[in-house]
Design goal:
- The complex is a heterodimer of chains A (539) and B (207).
- Chain A is of the alpha+beta class and 539 residues long.
- Chain A is 30% helix and 17% strand.
- Chain A has helices at 9-23, 32-35, 63-76, 130-139, 156-161, 254-267, 293-299, 307-317, 332-346, 366-371, 412-428, 459-478, 491-496, 500-516; strands spanning 28-29, 56-58, 80-83, 102-105, 112-116, 121-124, 144-145, 179-185, 191-193, 227-234, 236-237, 241-249, 276-279, 322-330, 353-356, 360-361, 401-404, 406-409, 439-440, 446-449, 451-454, 482-483.
- The longest helix of chain A is centred in the C-terminal third of the chain and has 20 residues, at 459-478.
- By secondary structure, chain B is α/β, with parallel strands linked by helices.
- Chain B is 35% helix and 26% strand.
- The longest helix of chain B has 14 residues, at 74-87.
- Classes of the chains: A alpha+beta (539), B alpha/beta (207).
- The interface between A and B is large, with 38 and 39 residues.
Amino acid sequence: MRIPPGLTAGDFGSAVTQFEQVVGREWVFTSDEDLNLYRDAYSPLFGEPEERVASGAVAPNSVEQVQQVVKIANTYKIPIYPISTGRNLGYGGAAPAYSGSVVLDLKRMNRILEVSERNASCLVEPGVSYFDLCKYIEDKNLKLWVDVPDPGWGSVIGNALDHGGGYTTALYRNHFDAHCGMEVVLANGEVIRTGMGALPGAGTWQQFKFGVGPWIDGIFSQSNFGIVTKMGFWLMPIPDAYLSGTVSVPRHSDLIRLVDILTYIENAGVSNGMPMIGMLGSGFPGLGGPRDKELGALLARPGGAPPEEIERLALQKGIPYWNCSLRFYGPAKAVAAQWEHTKEKFSAIPGATFQDGELLRLPLTPEQRQRVHKPEFGIPSLEMFSIGARSEINPNPTNGHMWFSPIIPRTGEAVFEAQRVLSQASRDLKLPFNISAIPTMYWLRAFVLIIAFPITRDIATNKRNRDAFNRLVQIAAEHGWGEYRTAPVFMDAVAGAYSYNSNALMRFHETIKDAVDPNGIISAGRYGIWPKHLRGNRA
Amino acid sequence: MASRREFLQFGIAASALPITGATGLSSDLLHSGEPARLPLYKVVFDERFADSVRFGVEMKRLGVPTHAIQGDITDFWLHDLDPRWKKAPVAIAGLTAHGPLFCLERLSWDHRMRVVFSAEHRSLGDGRIEHAISGPDIMLRHAAELVAGGPNWAAHIAAVVTHCPPGRSQISRTTIITPLATATDDEQEPLMSWVIAPVDAVRRNLT
């Protein structure tokens, strides 16, 4: 039997017996065969002695059982690591941040407690996946969409708590923002409800987020201050229609005005869908421009090619430097008018051209469902796992990835600066791939760069990539760019970059941690927050 | 040195997983003297790959129900497999790229199922293909016939997969090299043949 750090075999054995009394013998896992299921398939430490692994797993099926497990963990000072479905691939999966923790597997708590079509909201438990919720809604023929991530097999609660995003409208695709009300089991076993959930008899738990007084929901995301056992979400009424369109601009410097106009268009509510920006040759479906061998060779040059050289060749060939696709959800007449208005605004850029997308009436027909990017229509999918197949745009499929995903200002100038800095870094670090630093817009108001580092079969390569990743975190921080989310192995480095006023924010987090979880049992090390007894021994 | 793919095969590395399903066997098989075979609910093949299609064709010929995909297993899992597994876990097999196996294996874990046979079929870039096989001894004995099969290895793997035994099995590994089916297959990413089966559940499934 594996033993959690700091425990004796005798104490852990006693705790396991008590866990079994609470959840039943069949729901306590201590064998290697079972515990290997909790390994992170995308771990950058996979197969190395430092890989974060579980010492045990307990799977309760009710809030009351969670409370009792937490009390036992407190008695024996057992580190526990709550997971919902454990499918947060690229950000840790089911593996604990602190190796040797006991995974608190909430997958059995998979009840959809309420879906209100009138209020367009739901209340779910942590084990409910996007597939589960969408199927429930479809089976009941409710006129609602769930904004889903890609892939969609993860937990609705888990994804929101880790600040995941989706692909529909701005109101819903920030999954944490779209939540309304929580139930949390604290480290002492007490249960709290946030917002209107704290008011006995209120029928507004999923309608008004704040209740009165401090709004504390945020401290339970990307943290270790409690175990979320219920969460409400706002759902999207199925719109009448969907329209997309693409704007193309010819010159490298056009990105600055492109972004400014796009920002206006979104902030003014003219376009409510998720825009995407693509650079020529970037490989984005529909946004990378036509394939051209000469241009492709230039872009593939180790360390990248100067923008002016790329632009010169692209202008000769009549290939636009930037493409931006926009999406509109709403009444058919309204989305058509919004796209026309959008085109008028972008016409201010000399040489801008436009491509009208297909107007789709909703709900989609079965044939349409097969050919669209499903998450844009609230349809969960595992399709992205098929892109590992070797193809022109993916000639060397890898064994997983870790995401380097800094937030940068939402301006064209910031994109250029990020491209310059990260391209230089990729040369200095001798990365075997060029960092293209194309911004994505899961959220309004800021860009996030999503850069995939491959996980390979080779430990030495993985180590080099980890070192490069950590160096990129530092380089980004030196320029004011911080990651929005990361895998456990990088959490200390990423959280450490948010260091204003001698790490005042982290010290505040630690103050909260010490107050609400004095034994430090919940998710030690998650997002750099360590309990007091481990603070001098950070991984 | 472990890799993600080795991780995916951990169920095999556990060396002696109990596999259930014998109750679904026909009495003919149980009493004919031939070793019992695990009944396969469905076999998955990927229309994007010629070898996988050959595998599917052979499975059909052998009378095993097949399901064609083009990389994405969502519909198969959501509308067919998941409802079936919620009633009771049943064995499936396939010859696919790594992605579909990755998904199906993880989804099967919730029903106390494991990968009990797998083989990676990787082009060596010289007109030959390497088959790195892990599975019950009886399947490896059948796999030895791959050599005689020459370039039509996918059809032979289909036959191998149908010989997966129910019950606890000793797991072994072997590597076999055969000619590629066609020269263009040199460019193809490695394919995986696999069997996912219920293990003898001490515990109930997780759903």
